[in-house]
Amino acid sequence: MPYKPRPPCRVPGCPRLALPGHAACEVHQPRISRERAEAAREYDRRRGSARTRGYDRDSWEPARARYLSANPWCRWPGCHRPANTVHHIIPLAQGGDHNPLNLVGFCAPHHSRYEVSVGSRVRYSIRLYGSGWLAERNGETLVGQASEVTARRAVRERFLADLDAEGEGVSNPC
């Protein structure tokens, strides 16, 4: 069987062919690799450590362990695998916390699938508004002037409904 032909180097004006499995030729690939490595290091510097983002040993690890022991199965519709990742419905960076109402367990493939398919386009939030709490999904009010627990439950119920809708029609969910 013939081999797939190599594409041209992605650097404008370069007449060479790309290395197998790469986007550039032998002259330009080391430079591209260095640029990608530097971009990754810069991203890590801006992002901060897991500890500075709220995932420390004292609060996150015990909360995660408690949640997974109480909810051992992946929450993705139709999945029967054990949950091994815990997802924050309201991200820590947006004011979320480790409250069990703000957590949901996924197996690793479904956590990745959720982040790619839904997580980038749907945002949930709760905030103090006047004398009560306001729960929102992409700016749409779910419940207003409620207790904090009622607002958290409203966000969780909408999250689970969105998750069920995302998982519908999947012929092989796992």
Tell me what the structure shows.
There is one protein chain. The strands form 2 sheets. A 3-stranded antiparallel beta sheet has the order 3-4-5, covered by helices on one side. It has 174 residues and is an alpha+beta fold. It is elongated. It is 36% helix and 16% strand. The protein has 4 helices and 5 strands; from the N terminus they run ααββαβββα. The mean pLDDT is 88.
Comma- or semicolon-separated keywords:
174 residues; alpha+beta; two-stranded antiparallel ribbon; 4 helices; 16% strand
Strand content: 15-25%
Tally the helices: what do you get?
A: 4
Strand order, biggest sheet? 3-4-5
Total strands: the figure is 5
Low-confidence stretches: none
Q: Which class of secondary structure composition applies to the elements? A: alpha+beta
- Give the N-to-C terminal Cα separation: 33 Å
Q: Describe the biggest sheet?
A: 3 strands, antiparallel
CA-based shape = elongated
Order of secondary-structure elements: HHEEHEEEH
Radius of gyration: 22 Å
